[in-house]
Amino acid sequence: MSVNPDRPAEITPEELAAQTALYAPFTQAVRELVDATIRTTVDPATIRTAQAEVEAITARLREEQLEGSLGAHFGHGRARQPWGNTVVGLRNPVAPPLRPVPAGDREGEVHAEVVLGAAYEGPPGLVHGGVSSLLLDQILGTAAAAAGKPGMTAYLNLTYRRPTPLGPLRVEGWVDRSEGHKTWARGHVVGPDGPTVEAEGLFVLPRWARELLARRGDAEAPPAFE
Ligand SMILES: CCCCCCCCCCCCCC(=O)SCCNC(=O)CCNC(=O)[C@H](O)C(C)(C)COP(=O)(O)OP(=O)(O)OC[C@H]1O[C@@H](n2cnc3c(N)ncnc32)[C@H](O)[C@@H]1OP(=O)(O)O
Protein backbone atom coordinates (compact mmCIF):
# COMPACT_ATOMS: atom_id res chain seq x y z
CA MET A 1 0.00 0.00 0.00
CA SER A 2 1.46 3.36 -0.90
CA VAL A 3 1.16 6.11 1.69
CA ASN A 4 0.87 9.80 1.00
CA PRO A 5 2.01 11.70 4.10
CA ASP A 6 0.08 14.80 2.99
CA ARG A 7 -3.24 12.99 3.04
CA PRO A 8 -4.72 11.46 6.19
CA ALA A 9 -5.41 7.71 6.07
CA GLU A 10 -8.52 8.14 8.18
CA ILE A 11 -11.19 10.35 6.64
CA THR A 12 -14.76 10.98 7.73
CA PRO A 13 -17.73 9.43 5.90
CA GLU A 14 -18.67 12.99 4.85
CA GLU A 15 -15.25 13.59 3.30
CA LEU A 16 -15.46 10.20 1.59
CA ALA A 17 -18.86 11.14 0.14
CA ALA A 18 -17.53 14.53 -1.00
CA GLN A 19 -14.51 12.94 -2.72
CA THR A 20 -16.76 10.35 -4.37
CA ALA A 21 -19.07 13.07 -5.67
CA LEU A 22 -16.05 14.97 -7.01
CA TYR A 23 -14.08 12.18 -8.64
CA ALA A 24 -16.69 9.69 -9.91
CA PRO A 25 -18.13 12.02 -12.60
CA PHE A 26 -14.63 13.25 -13.52
CA THR A 27 -13.42 9.68 -14.05
CA GLN A 28 -16.53 8.86 -16.08
CA ALA A 29 -15.87 11.89 -18.31
CA VAL A 30 -12.36 10.60 -19.07
CA ARG A 31 -13.79 7.13 -19.77
CA GLU A 32 -16.12 8.76 -22.30
CA LEU A 33 -13.10 10.50 -23.81
CA VAL A 34 -11.37 7.15 -24.30
CA ASP A 35 -14.46 5.71 -26.00
CA ALA A 36 -14.81 8.80 -28.20
CA THR A 37 -11.09 8.62 -29.09
CA ILE A 38 -11.55 5.10 -30.39
CA ARG A 39 -14.80 5.69 -32.26
CA THR A 40 -14.65 9.25 -33.58
CA THR A 41 -14.84 9.88 -37.32
CA VAL A 42 -14.25 13.66 -37.24
CA ASP A 43 -11.90 15.30 -39.77
CA PRO A 44 -8.07 15.41 -39.29
CA ALA A 45 -7.99 19.12 -38.28
CA THR A 46 -10.48 18.44 -35.49
CA ILE A 47 -8.34 15.54 -34.26
CA ARG A 48 -5.27 17.82 -34.06
CA THR A 49 -7.25 20.50 -32.19
CA ALA A 50 -8.63 17.91 -29.77
CA GLN A 51 -5.14 16.54 -29.20
CA ALA A 52 -3.86 19.99 -28.21
CA GLU A 53 -6.81 20.46 -25.84
CA VAL A 54 -6.24 17.07 -24.21
CA GLU A 55 -2.52 17.81 -23.81
CA ALA A 56 -3.37 21.13 -22.15
CA ILE A 57 -5.73 19.40 -19.68
CA THR A 58 -3.07 16.77 -18.90
CA ALA A 59 -0.50 19.49 -18.21
CA ARG A 60 -2.95 21.28 -15.89
CA LEU A 61 -3.64 18.10 -13.89
CA ARG A 62 0.09 17.34 -13.62
CA GLU A 63 0.73 20.68 -11.89
CA GLU A 64 0.02 18.80 -8.64
CA GLN A 65 0.10 15.03 -8.45
CA LEU A 66 1.08 12.10 -6.26
CA GLU A 67 4.37 10.30 -6.64
CA GLY A 68 3.65 6.76 -7.74
CA SER A 69 0.27 5.10 -7.69
CA LEU A 70 -2.84 5.85 -5.65
CA GLY A 71 -2.66 2.76 -3.43
CA ALA A 72 -5.40 2.05 -0.92
CA HIS A 73 -4.26 3.96 2.11
CA PHE A 74 -7.28 6.03 3.02
CA GLY A 75 -10.79 5.30 4.18
CA HIS A 76 -13.08 5.19 7.16
CA GLY A 77 -12.67 2.58 9.89
CA ARG A 78 -11.26 -0.68 8.50
CA ALA A 79 -12.57 0.02 4.99
CA ARG A 80 -9.86 1.10 2.54
CA GLN A 81 -10.57 2.68 -0.83
CA PRO A 82 -8.70 1.09 -3.74
CA TRP A 83 -9.49 4.05 -6.01
CA GLY A 84 -6.60 3.37 -8.36
CA ASN A 85 -7.52 -0.31 -8.90
CA THR A 86 -7.66 -1.15 -12.62
CA VAL A 87 -10.97 -3.04 -12.28
CA VAL A 88 -12.95 -1.29 -9.53
CA GLY A 89 -11.04 1.96 -8.94
CA LEU A 90 -13.35 4.95 -8.59
CA ARG A 91 -10.61 7.27 -9.86
CA ASN A 92 -9.33 4.95 -12.60
CA PRO A 93 -10.85 5.59 -16.05
CA VAL A 94 -9.28 2.33 -17.27
CA ALA A 95 -11.57 0.45 -14.85
CA PRO A 96 -14.83 -0.51 -16.66
CA PRO A 97 -15.71 -0.10 -13.64
CA LEU A 98 -16.84 -3.27 -11.89
CA ARG A 99 -19.11 -2.71 -8.87
CA PRO A 100 -19.45 -6.07 -7.09
CA VAL A 101 -22.42 -6.40 -4.74
CA PRO A 102 -23.43 -9.27 -2.43
CA ALA A 103 -25.80 -11.66 -4.26
CA GLY A 104 -26.89 -15.28 -4.37
CA ASP A 105 -26.56 -17.71 -1.48
CA ARG A 106 -23.11 -19.22 -1.99
CA GLU A 107 -20.32 -18.27 0.44
CA GLY A 108 -18.91 -14.82 -0.33
CA GLU A 109 -21.02 -14.60 -3.49
CA VAL A 110 -20.79 -11.31 -5.35
CA HIS A 111 -22.16 -10.21 -8.73
CA ALA A 112 -21.38 -7.20 -10.89
CA GLU A 113 -23.26 -5.84 -13.89
CA VAL A 114 -20.94 -4.18 -16.37
CA VAL A 115 -21.07 -2.80 -19.90
CA LEU A 116 -17.85 -3.31 -21.87
CA GLY A 117 -17.46 -0.94 -24.79
CA ALA A 118 -14.92 -0.41 -27.56
CA ALA A 119 -12.02 0.06 -25.12
CA TYR A 120 -12.15 -3.62 -24.13
CA GLU A 121 -12.14 -5.18 -27.60
CA GLY A 122 -9.99 -8.15 -28.52
CA PRO A 123 -11.27 -10.03 -31.57
CA PRO A 124 -13.52 -7.63 -33.51
CA GLY A 125 -16.77 -7.09 -31.61
CA LEU A 126 -15.64 -9.35 -28.77
CA VAL A 127 -14.13 -8.88 -25.32
CA HIS A 128 -10.36 -9.41 -25.09
CA GLY A 129 -9.59 -12.66 -23.26
CA GLY A 130 -7.20 -10.84 -20.93
CA VAL A 131 -9.97 -8.44 -19.94
CA SER A 132 -12.25 -11.35 -18.99
CA SER A 133 -9.35 -12.71 -16.93
CA LEU A 134 -8.87 -9.31 -15.29
CA LEU A 135 -12.53 -9.07 -14.25
CA LEU A 136 -12.59 -12.65 -12.98
CA ASP A 137 -9.40 -12.24 -10.94
CA GLN A 138 -10.99 -9.28 -9.21
CA ILE A 139 -14.43 -10.82 -8.62
CA LEU A 140 -12.98 -14.08 -7.27
CA GLY A 141 -10.65 -12.10 -4.99
CA THR A 142 -13.59 -9.97 -3.86
CA ALA A 143 -15.62 -13.12 -3.10
CA ALA A 144 -12.76 -14.46 -0.96
CA ALA A 145 -12.53 -11.11 0.85
CA ALA A 146 -16.34 -10.96 1.25
CA ALA A 147 -16.18 -14.36 2.94
CA GLY A 148 -13.66 -12.90 5.40
CA LYS A 149 -10.74 -14.75 3.75
CA PRO A 150 -8.84 -12.14 1.72
CA GLY A 151 -5.79 -13.20 -0.24
CA MET A 152 -3.52 -12.65 -3.20
CA THR A 153 -4.06 -14.67 -6.37
CA ALA A 154 -1.78 -17.73 -6.33
CA TYR A 155 -3.23 -19.13 -9.55
CA LEU A 156 -6.18 -18.47 -11.81
CA ASN A 157 -7.42 -21.08 -14.28
CA LEU A 158 -9.73 -19.98 -17.07
CA THR A 159 -11.86 -21.86 -19.57
CA TYR A 160 -13.12 -19.81 -22.49
CA ARG A 161 -16.33 -21.67 -23.41
CA ARG A 162 -17.54 -19.31 -26.12
CA PRO A 163 -16.78 -15.77 -27.33
CA THR A 164 -17.83 -12.92 -25.04
CA PRO A 165 -19.63 -10.14 -26.95
CA LEU A 166 -18.98 -6.50 -26.11
CA GLY A 167 -21.97 -4.90 -24.35
CA PRO A 168 -23.82 -5.72 -21.14
CA LEU A 169 -22.39 -8.60 -19.09
CA ARG A 170 -22.62 -10.00 -15.58
CA VAL A 171 -19.60 -11.22 -13.63
CA GLU A 172 -20.14 -13.60 -10.71
CA GLY A 173 -17.80 -15.00 -8.08
CA TRP A 174 -18.11 -17.16 -4.97
CA VAL A 175 -16.01 -19.21 -2.57
CA ASP A 176 -15.76 -22.89 -3.34
CA ARG A 177 -13.84 -23.98 -0.22
CA SER A 178 -11.09 -22.86 2.12
CA GLU A 179 -8.38 -24.32 4.34
CA GLY A 180 -6.79 -21.88 6.76
CA HIS A 181 -5.04 -19.16 4.76
CA LYS A 182 -5.96 -20.74 1.37
CA THR A 183 -9.27 -20.04 -0.35
CA TRP A 184 -10.45 -21.53 -3.62
CA ALA A 185 -12.96 -19.39 -5.49
CA ARG A 186 -14.97 -19.87 -8.66
CA GLY A 187 -16.82 -17.60 -11.02
CA HIS A 188 -17.84 -16.79 -14.55
CA VAL A 189 -18.66 -14.08 -17.04
CA VAL A 190 -22.27 -14.29 -18.21
CA GLY A 191 -23.28 -12.90 -21.63
CA PRO A 192 -26.71 -12.66 -23.27
CA ASP A 193 -26.56 -16.40 -24.10
CA GLY A 194 -25.19 -17.64 -20.77
CA PRO A 195 -21.71 -18.17 -19.27
CA THR A 196 -18.83 -17.48 -21.64
CA VAL A 197 -15.70 -17.71 -19.45
CA GLU A 198 -15.33 -19.83 -16.31
CA ALA A 199 -12.65 -19.32 -13.66
CA GLU A 200 -11.23 -21.20 -10.71
CA GLY A 201 -8.53 -19.65 -8.55
CA LEU A 202 -6.58 -19.99 -5.34
CA PHE A 203 -6.27 -16.95 -3.06
CA VAL A 204 -3.64 -17.03 -0.34
CA LEU A 205 -3.19 -14.70 2.62
CA PRO A 206 0.56 -14.10 2.23
CA ARG A 207 3.07 -15.11 4.87
CA TRP A 208 3.87 -11.44 5.68
CA ALA A 209 0.18 -10.75 6.36
CA ARG A 210 -0.15 -13.89 8.49
CA GLU A 211 2.89 -12.89 10.50
CA LEU A 212 1.52 -9.37 10.94
CA LEU A 213 -1.77 -10.75 12.22
CA ALA A 214 0.05 -13.16 14.53
CA ARG A 215 2.07 -10.27 15.99
CA ARG A 216 -1.18 -8.41 16.64
CA GLY A 217 -2.53 -11.51 18.36
CA ASP A 218 -5.12 -12.00 15.61
CA ALA A 219 -7.05 -9.19 17.26
CA GLU A 220 -7.51 -7.36 14.01
CA ALA A 221 -8.55 -8.77 10.65
CA PRO A 222 -6.78 -7.59 7.46
CA PRO A 223 -8.12 -4.35 6.00
CA ALA A 224 -11.28 -4.61 3.96
CA PHE A 225 -11.11 -3.12 0.45
CA GLU A 226 -14.43 -1.64 -0.62
C1 LIG B 1 -3.28 -8.81 2.23
C2 LIG B 1 -4.32 -9.47 1.49
C3 LIG B 1 -4.82 -8.67 0.35
C4 LIG B 1 -6.31 -8.79 0.17
C5 LIG B 1 -6.83 -8.11 -1.04
C6 LIG B 1 -8.33 -8.23 -1.17
C7 LIG B 1 -8.80 -7.46 -2.35
C8 LIG B 1 -9.77 -8.23 -3.16
C9 LIG B 1 -9.63 -8.10 -4.62
C10 LIG B 1 -8.27 -8.39 -5.17
C11 LIG B 1 -8.33 -9.19 -6.42
C12 LIG B 1 -7.09 -9.07 -7.25
C13 LIG B 1 -6.02 -10.03 -6.80
C14 LIG B 1 -4.70 -9.73 -7.41
O1 LIG B 1 -4.56 -9.22 -8.47
S1 LIG B 1 -3.36 -10.18 -6.46
C15 LIG B 1 -1.98 -9.86 -7.56
C16 LIG B 1 -1.56 -11.08 -8.29
N1 LIG B 1 -1.00 -12.03 -7.39
C17 LIG B 1 0.24 -11.91 -6.93
O2 LIG B 1 0.96 -11.00 -7.25
C18 LIG B 1 0.68 -12.96 -5.95
C19 LIG B 1 2.19 -13.20 -6.02
N2 LIG B 1 2.52 -14.32 -5.17
C20 LIG B 1 2.62 -14.17 -3.82
O3 LIG B 1 2.56 -13.07 -3.29
C21 LIG B 1 2.80 -15.41 -3.01
O4 LIG B 1 3.44 -16.42 -3.74
C22 LIG B 1 1.44 -15.97 -2.50
C23 LIG B 1 0.64 -14.87 -1.79
C24 LIG B 1 0.58 -16.55 -3.61
C25 LIG B 1 1.72 -17.10 -1.50
O5 LIG B 1 2.09 -16.51 -0.33
P1 LIG B 1 3.35 -16.86 0.50
O6 LIG B 1 4.45 -17.13 -0.45
O7 LIG B 1 3.58 -15.80 1.48
O8 LIG B 1 2.82 -18.11 1.23
P2 LIG B 1 3.43 -19.56 1.30
O9 LIG B 1 4.57 -19.77 0.39
O10 LIG B 1 3.59 -19.80 2.74
O11 LIG B 1 2.25 -20.44 0.73
C26 LIG B 1 1.06 -20.52 1.44
C27 LIG B 1 0.31 -21.72 0.93
O12 LIG B 1 -0.16 -21.46 -0.41
C28 LIG B 1 0.27 -22.52 -1.27
N3 LIG B 1 0.50 -21.97 -2.59
C29 LIG B 1 1.10 -20.81 -2.88
N4 LIG B 1 1.11 -20.63 -4.22
C30 LIG B 1 0.48 -21.68 -4.76
C31 LIG B 1 0.14 -22.06 -6.07
N5 LIG B 1 0.45 -21.30 -7.13
N6 LIG B 1 -0.52 -23.19 -6.26
C32 LIG B 1 -0.90 -23.97 -5.20
N7 LIG B 1 -0.62 -23.67 -3.94
C33 LIG B 1 0.05 -22.54 -3.73
C34 LIG B 1 1.53 -23.05 -0.64
O13 LIG B 1 1.80 -24.38 -1.07
C35 LIG B 1 1.18 -22.99 0.82
O14 LIG B 1 0.36 -24.08 1.15
P3 LIG B 1 0.45 -24.74 2.62
O15 LIG B 1 1.79 -25.41 2.67
O16 LIG B 1 0.31 -23.62 3.62
O17 LIG B 1 -0.70 -25.72 2.68
Describe this structure in words.
- This protein is an alpha+beta fold and 226 residues long.
- It has a domain at 96-225: Hotdog Thioesterase (Thiol Ester Dehydrase, Chain A), CATH 3.10.129.
- Helix content is 32%, strand content 26%.
- It is built from four helices and nine strands.
- It has helices spanning 13-39, 44-61, 129-146, 207-215; strands spanning 75-76, 79-80, 101-102, 110-116, 152-160, 167-179, 182-191, 194-204, 224-225.
- The strands form two sheets. The protein has a six-stranded antiparallel β-sheet, covered by helices on one side. Strands 1-2-9 form a three-stranded mixed β-sheet, with no helix packed on it.
- A hairpin with a 2-residue loop joins strand 7 (182-191) and strand 8.
- The radius of gyration is 19 Å and the shape is globular.
- The two termini are 15 Å apart.
- The relative contact order is 0.13.
- The model has no long low-confidence stretch (mean pLDDT 92).
- The protein binds tetradecanoyl-COA.
- Residues 137-138, 141-142, 145, 150-155, 182, 202, 204-207, 209, 222, 225 line the site of tetradecanoyl-COA.
- Tetradecanoyl-COA (MYA) binds next to helix 3, strand 5, strand 8 and helix 4.
- This is Acyl-coenzyme A thioesterase THEM4.
- Keywords: Apoptosis, Cell membrane, Cell projection, Cytoplasm, Fatty acid metabolism, Hydrolase, Lipid metabolism, Membrane, Transit peptide.
- It catalyses: (9Z)-octadecenoyl-CoA + H2O = (9Z)-octadecenoate + CoA + H(+); dodecanoyl-CoA + H2O = dodecanoate + CoA + H(+); hexadecanoyl-CoA + H2O = hexadecanoate + CoA + H(+); tetradecanoyl-CoA + H2O = tetradecanoate + CoA + H(+).
- Residues 125-183 form the Thioesterase domain.
- Belongs to the THEM4/THEM5 thioesterase family.
